[in-house]
Structure prediction request, 121 residues.
Amino acid sequence: QGHLVESGGGSVQAGGSLRLSCRVSAYTYSNYCLGWFRQAPGKEREGVATIDSDGRSTYADSVQGRFTISQNNAKDTLYLQMNSLKSEDTAMYYCAADRVNWLLLPSYIYWGQGTQVTVSS
Prediction:
């Protein structure tokens, strides 16, 4: 299968915004469910937002209304627009893909290497 490559992480002050990107292979992942997950030090990996092959999205309660998951028209890039960032959003963010729609469970089979997001208060 193809690779998932995240980018767009960085450091931002609380209240700021970041947009994460994940390059996916449109041919490889055209019928896959895609998702964004995060893992903070000492914590388990948790689901942030996912989108299925029909474009339906699911969000964790903690990010609902602040984060938006989307894809470009070519479906070769997955985005996570993060607004009103909080210190508790600090984590390594990963994109993931699977034919099975695991929703927010971190059971996806394919993972990127991650991009760090640090929010300072």
The chain has a mean pLDDT of 94. Residues 68 and 81 are 5 Å apart (CA to CA). The two ends are 40 Å apart (CA to CA). The longest strand covers residues 91-98.
